[in-house]
Design brief:
Layout: H1 8-15, E1 19-24, E2 33-39, E3 42-48, H2 61-65, E4 80-82, E5 92-94, H3 97-115, E6 120-124, H4 130-140, H5 155-165, E7 171-172, E8 179-183, H6 194-205, E9 209-213, H7 219-223, E10 226-228, H8 235-248, H9 254-260, E11 261-262, H10 264-273, H11 278-285, H12 289-301, E12 305-309, H13 319-332, E13 342-343, H14 369-372, H15 386-392, E14 400-404, H16 408-411, H17 415-424, E15 427-432, H18 437-440, E16 444-447, E17 456-459, E18 466-470, H19 483-494, H20 505-512, H21 520-526, E19 528-530, E20 549-550, H22 554-558, E21 580-585, H23 599-604, E22 609-613, H24 614-620, E23 627-631, E24 636-644, E25 651-655, E26 697-702
Helix pairs in contact: 3-19, 4-19, 5-13, 8-11, 8-12, 8-13, 11-12, 15-17
Bound molecules: ligand MGD (2 copies), iron/sulfur cluster (SF4) and molybdenum atom.
The site of one ligand MGD has 29 residues, from strand 15.
Length: 703
Amino acid sequence: MTSGTPDLGSQLAKIKGAKVIKSFCYTCPWQCPTEVFVRDGKVVYHKGNPESPNNIGSRCAKGMASWYVTQDPDRLKFPLLRTNAKGGPGQFKRVSWDEAFAFIADKLKHIKDKWGPEAVAFTCHHDPNSHFYWHLLRDLYGSPNMYTHTSGCEQDRRAACLTLFGHVFPMHDFANSRYVMLWGMNMLGANQGLWESRALMEAKNKGCKLVVVDPNFTETAQKADEWVPIQPGTDGAMALAMCRVIIDDNLYDSDFVNKYCEGFAGFRDHVRDKGYTPQWAEPICGIPAATITRLAREFASTKPAMSAIFKGSGYYTNGADAGRACYILDAITGELDKPGNLHLKDWAPLAPAVNIPEDAKGKATKPPLHIAMGYPLAPDLPNARLPNAVINADPYPVKALFVQSTNPVMSDPNRDAVQEMFKQLELAVTCEIYMSETALESDIVLPETSFYEHAEIRQGMWLGPEVVLCQPAVAPPGEAKPAYEIVKGIAQKMGWGQYFPYEKWEDWGELMMKDIPMSLAELKQKGFWAGPIRYHRVPEGLATPSTKVEIYSKAYADAGFDPYPVYRERSVKPDAQYPLQVTHSKFSMHCNIVTQNNPYLMEICGENWVEINTLDAQKYGIQDDSYVVVESPKDQIKIKAKVVEGLVPGCVSIRHGHGFGHWAMGTHAKGKGAHSNNLMDSYTNPITGANCYNECKVRVRPA
Ligand SMILES: Nc1nc2c(c(=O)[nH]1)N[C@H]1C(S)=C(S)[C@@H](COP(=O)(O)OP(=O)(O)OC[C@H]3O[C@@H](n4cnc5c(=O)[nH]c(N)nc54)[C@H](O)[C@@H]3O)O[C@H]1N2
Ligand SMILES: Nc1nc2c(c(=O)[nH]1)N[C@H]1C(S)=C(S)[C@@H](COP(=O)(O)OP(=O)(O)OC[C@H]3O[C@@H](n4cnc5c(=O)[nH]c(N)nc54)[C@H](O)[C@@H]3O)O[C@H]1N2
Ligand code: SF4
Ligand SMILES: [Mo]
């Protein structure tokens, strides 16, 4: 629904006396600002906040269906303590919050005494209010191991952005672009910000050329001017060959590279010395040399332009340098942080919600896990290596894991290893809204509130600096609590209650907003604060060690890696026994492992499937819409097959999100679809620590 469109739903809700609460949706990580209409304690209607630049009033199907979470009888309602031995699905008894807090505090004290604070790690996905846990476990307790699940997500992209641009999460200024090249980034399927998807299509309507490089003919590829059906795991070769053409044809921006880039001359020699030509790349990528040459020339001579990645070029052991190479296209053409480019957004100056005095801070005696594991360049924990730390005390013992809003048993590669890890942990605490597969492996399960039931103030995912707010709209189910109350409860049992003095969420909300030019009261009325969009930050100096775009990375050289991106083959390639390459992709109608207990979304998309090309389907006797067995050297699954034309022959695309016991207690999710994460082993990108879900070969046969 856009502003200006007659909005009968909201008029009706107002007539019927509903209260309107400004909030945001957190069904997927893009947190669209919303208006939630509440009457008699129930969500009766909700829509996008029409004033917000993030979604301009619109929402996606997942967001629209998300109100169900407030009434889902399968939600966790009480703290649950495990009563049976670890190693099988948990049996639990209801305990009071007081007992739960005391149990956790006792274990934490014991673990710190025996193993040190670094034996406790924390991980999360959507990180709803996770910073409260960090104040407790990092600042006071002293663990350096506060992580998120990024290695399962955009870890390669994040590492490339940090290395080259000193920026953790650039946005995309599609609206002003005239040439957009997306490497495996499915904006219109697995949507990122709704404003980004809209801006991309509006730019296209104004004549922007959209090129999608992806083995799969995705929703975005279907809307593109050109689909480049690349062989999986070979983006690095194509991007480096494009760089070579741009350099050899003198199409690079010499002023920009001289002033603002570190190591351009060395890079020019590097791509020549290594022989990275389109002719070299053709047999690797399966893309004709003439096409690579033409795309390079088009890209470099159309301005403004953007070459962007998300996870498509990642998920392989060679994904780190592939990502760097795709972004170096932006750097050498001088297409960075100007209108229409990759955008090095400013962050809002949000202050901490909790201030722990220096003299109260706990001290770690060991380095953070990612450093100790040998991944100094990893922007987050290489979480496929965490089972090894827990099971083998390598690099040092890890005894406790807090898991909030993430489901590693379902989401990380090699489910066997993840389950074994949970078996070995002395303390596994899962903070969830459902009895997830990970909760089932835990010692204690804490019911958290959903974004309809708690407050949160966070950075907005828009071009300018932005703050977005969600506010409690309805009461939580049972005794579910928000993270800020859970942390306060544990802290009190640890003897640290005085550091969490807030009585209501507005108390910490005021603290967070102190440097934002908007009061908390105004934020509650409006739902967001947005500052001005700025461009042209490169000449001001970037947050890299040299303050320039680091095409040459000294950090890489110091860590023993190639300072310039190189192309190497990935680790696992199909062979005679397992002739098909696995790739993964997401559903437009679901988000990850979050939405499969929603009956409305399950009605549209009730199970996941594997896509296979017509030629391969013929070869292996696979019928469309029939069930097949997908078998890797490690495991096998039974899953529905979709026979498609638009997929590079020789690879399959497994749609992610359903399957396994998922959720153990979710009526609508249980038993639907198949879970592919035990097909692959625990491959980790050697530079960034990213999970390599696509390092996996399979064979397929009718079930
Ligand atoms: N509707 C919906 N929206 C979502 C999500 C969701 O589950 N559903 N999830 C959210 C999250 S957590 C994320 S991280 C983003 C994900 O956003 P995307 O990364 O855009 O989503 P994926 O579907 O995982 O896309 C991966 C794409 O990479 C392609 N690919 C695989 N191998 C290669 C390769 O070697 N080279 C290239 N060029 N492409 C390759 C796949 O075919 C697939 O199209 O979306 C977010 N938004
Ligand atoms: N095979 C394969 N594996 C993948 C992917 C893939 O494409 N293929 N995608 C990867 C990507 S990009 C990502 S981002 C990860 C995502 O994997 P995870 O990090 O596991 O995150 P999600 O799947 O988003 O959500 C996990 C849990 O959060 C819970 N949850 C939802 N809302 C809340 C809340 O408000 N509070 C709390 N406490 N819990 C909540 C849900 O019940 C769910 O169990 O998976 C990765 N794994
Ligand atoms: S894009 Fe994400 S945050 Fe926005 S409405 Fe959809 S699910 Fe919610
Ligand atoms: Mo993700």
